[in-house]
């Protein structure tokens, strides 16, 4: 069946490497779309949970699918979150064809649109807004403060707020916290002159216009693949929330090749390209070697001729009368 073509698809809070991740469903979704741009908006990997040595084949298949999309021409952006904050150290660099960044700005149909994960709003809005006045420096400072806060709370046995991973996984969210989070994100967007703001972090998919005294903006949240199994899709100049549970055609888009692939086949597939390149190099070297055989024989004959000539000259030199 033909895949759905999208201008942009946005995923966040997948938490690959955790028991709560719905990797099979996400793989099905990725197999059903053909996006020009794929934005991974934070917490795609749960590096904290990966320390438990849990990373099943289905999670690896999702990663392979993302790299497969990138190799086929999809522009893939990996935006860092608080659960994959290790990658914040390589902001602006590429992992193959995938660009890693802490935030992304696009202009869509004349609208300034900001993509970022949203964990910087774990601090009070006043501190966040004040630091954001310093541009990239302020944004990076908030990321560092967020990490410092998380590590400090972990030392005393507490979880970060307003959205801890466990609360999100169990669906025990405070609606007031979510509303406050959305309002703070929108205020920041309006003050920074963005028309649309796209984030994750709260695990709560939403699309709504938020107004303040200074203006309005469209707030968008892609939800998660822990509980809601949702994504954001942009096509024909409009945004919509995709919900896996409402998609009646997902079974027709199942990627059977990936679904039936075991871990050894996956590793073989990932290394297949490298093997083909190696085989190609061997063929080239063999062809060059074969083409040089006649030349090497000729050179050997010439070398033997000059060697015999030198021996003959030395022999004649010794025969000269002293």
Summarize the entry for a quick read.
With 322 residues, the protein is α/β, with parallel strands linked by helices. The protein has 8 helices and 12 strands.
User: How many distinct beta strands?
Assistant: 12
| Count of alpha and pi helical runs | 8
Main beta-sheet strand count, sense and barrel state: 7 strands, mixed
SSE arrangement, N to C:
EHEHEEEEEHHHHEEEEEHH
Give the end-to-end Cα distance, rounded to a whole number of Å: 98 Å
What ranges have pLDDT less than 50 throughout 5 or more consecutive residues?
A: 124-139, 164-171
Quick one: overall form? elongated
| Beta-strand content bin | 15-25%
Nearest-angstrom radius of gyration? 29 Å
Give an overview in words.
The chain has 322 residues and is α/β, with parallel strands linked by helices. The protein has 8 helices and 12 strands. The chain has helices at residues 23-32, 57-71, 125-132, 136-155, 165-170, 175-191, 256-259, 263-319, and strands at residues 4-11, 33-41, 75-79, 94-95, 98-101, 104-108, 111-115, 196-199, 206-212, 215-221, 230-235, 238-243. A 7-stranded mixed beta sheet has the order 4-5-3-2-1-11-12. The chain has a 5-stranded mixed beta sheet with strand order 6-7-8-10-9, with helices on one face. A hairpin with a 2-residue loop joins strand 4 and strand 5 (98-101).
Q: How is the topology of this model organized?
A:
Elements: E1 4-11, H1 23-32, E2 33-41, H2 57-71, E3 75-79, E4 94-95, E5 98-101, E6 104-108, E7 111-115, H3 125-132, H4 136-155, H5 165-170, H6 175-191, E8 196-199, E9 206-212, E10 215-221, E11 230-235, E12 238-243, H7 256-259, H8 263-319
Parallel strand pairs: 1-2, 2-3, 3-5, 7-8, 8-10
Antiparallel strand pairs: 1-11, 4-5, 6-7, 9-10, 11-12
């Amino acid at each position: 069946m033909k895949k759905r073509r999208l201008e942009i698809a946005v995923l966040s809070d997948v938490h690959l490497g955790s028991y709560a991740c719905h990797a099979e469903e996400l793989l099905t979704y990725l197999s059903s779309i053909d996006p020009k741009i794929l934005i991974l908006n934070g917490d795609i990997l749960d590096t904290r949970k990966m320390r438990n040595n849990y990373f099943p084949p289905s999670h690896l298949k999702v990663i392979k699918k993302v790299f497969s999309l990138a190799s086929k021409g999809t522009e893939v952006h990996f935006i860092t979150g608080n659960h994959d904050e290790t990658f914040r150290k390589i902001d602006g660099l590429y992992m193959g064809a995938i660009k890693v960044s802490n935030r992304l700005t696009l202009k869509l149909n004349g609208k300034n649109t900001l993509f970022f994960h949203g964990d910087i709003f774990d601090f009070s809005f006043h501190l966040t807004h004040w630091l954001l006045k310093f541009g990239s420096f302020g944004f990076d400072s908030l990321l560092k403060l967020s990490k410092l806060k998380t590590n400090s709370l972990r030392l005393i046995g507490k979880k970060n707020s307003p959205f801890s991973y466990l609360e999100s996984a169990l669906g025990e969210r405070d609606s007031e916290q979510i509303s406050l989070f959305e309002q703070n994100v929108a205020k920041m967007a309006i003050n920074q002159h963005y028309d649309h703001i796209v984030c994750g972090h709260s695990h709560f998919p939403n699309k709504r216009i938020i107004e303040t005294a200074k203006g309005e903006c469209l707030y968008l949240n892609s939800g998660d693949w822990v509980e809601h199994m949702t994504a954001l899709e942009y096509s024909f100049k409009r945004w919509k929330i995709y919900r896996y549970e409402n998609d009646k055609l997902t079974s027709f888009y199942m990627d059977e090749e990936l679904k039936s692939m075991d871990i050894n086949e996956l590793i073989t597939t990932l290394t297949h390209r490298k093997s083909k390149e190696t085989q190609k190099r061997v063929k080239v070297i063999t062809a060059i070697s074969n083409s040089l055989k006649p030349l090497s024989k000729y050179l050997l004959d010439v070398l033997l001729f000059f060697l015999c000539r030198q021996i003959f000259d030395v022999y004649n030199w010794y025969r000269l009368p002293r």
